[in-house]
């Protein structure tokens, strides 16, 4: 069982499992949108209000790959609610007889006290105390077809004459390619011992360096300037409004600048962004990746 098998990371996990000859089911609210499996994945609603349906969906499943999380809270869907939803999912998995849960967290979940990280740390506790065999995999930042942050930086560089870096831009990121990350998740699923591992790539960039790398790879001339974080946030909020999205929240900006999107373990990913980018410079940033469009848009019934 893979949550979000037609969305971002879940799609790569599902593809790997299918390649290994495994049967894959998914819990999702975007059932047929872009199904890359040609109908081989059976979809069930990701509906935390109906525990019996979650149980039915997971009955007979060996491993639950949980990618569910809420990046940008909206209305009553807060990070605290997302943690309770994970609790509900894990309870259902336990009752359905699932052997192992492979849970996606984030690198350094206790390094920030802001709500996203507090929720991530609390969700890990739900997994640890579930009584299920578990792997907790902690990605830093993902890149590769369908990613959000790196894609949207590229989109801004393509569409605006000036790119504003918050502060000195010396805070670091250690991106991992989504395929490497999915490989790590699937590998973790085949094991039995309880493990907690970081999922990070082989290169570390200062934010400033990353922006300039993207600009160079796409052969653009946007002016890169440093501005006070409060101004960068105002710009991001305005750009987000124009795009009908939440481009960057205040918490995300604070966390980004806290140097916590890096791992302190040996890197497990092998794909280098500096190798990947030249081969994908025509695609990256061509389409804006909207959080609202992905997760808060109503799916028309005929595609559900
Ligand atoms: N992307 C990154 O750079 C990054 C970095 C560090 C950690 N992570 C972690 O990696 C995990 C997977 O991320 P991802 O980018 O692959 O996510 P995703 O595919 O966009 O979403 C994963 C699952 O969560 C559901 N979901 C997400 N937001 C939701 C919302 N607002 N309301 C209801 N359901 C929602 C999706 O539902 P649908 O199936 O209906 O789409 C999907 O099943 C998350 O735990 C995330 O925190 C990601």
Tell me what the structure shows.
The chain has 304 residues and is of the alpha/beta class. The chain has helices at 9-19, 51-58, 79-96, 115-128, 149-159, 178-189, 207-217, 229-242, 250-256, 273-280, 291-295; strands at 2-3, 25-28, 42-45, 63-66, 100-104, 133-139, 142-143, 162-166, 172-173, 176-177, 195-199, 205-206, 223-227. The longest helix has 18 residues, at 79-96. It starts with a strand and ends in a 9-residue tail after the last helix. The model has no long low-confidence stretch (mean pLDDT 94). Residues 3-4, 7-10, 28-30, 46, 67-70, 77, 104, 106, 139, 141-142, 147-149, 294-295 line the site of NADP nicotinamide-adenine-dinucleotide phosphate (NAP).
Rg from Cα: 19 Å
What kind of oligomer do you see?
single chain
| Percent in helix | 25-40%
Number of helices: 11
Give the CATH H-level superfamily: NAD(P)-binding Rossmann-like Domain
CATH fold type: Rossmann fold
Query: Based on DSSP secondary structure assignment, what is the total number of beta strands?
Result: 13
Query: What characterizes the major β-sheet?
Result: 4 strands, parallel
What is the CA-CA span between the terminal residues?
Answer: 19 Å
Overall structural class, as computed from helix and strand content, comes to: alpha/beta
Low-confidence stretches: none
Side-by-side strand order of the widest sheet:
4-5-6-11
- Listing every helix as H and every strand as E from the N terminus to the C terminus, the arrangement reads EHEEHEHEHEEHEEEHEEHEHHHH
Name the bound molecules. NADP nicotinamide-adenine-dinucleotide phosphate
pLDDT averaged residue by residue: 94
Task: Please indicate the count of domains.
Answer: 1
Overall shape: it is: globular
User: What is the CATH domain class?
Assistant: Alpha Beta
How much of the sequence lies in strands comes to: 15-25%
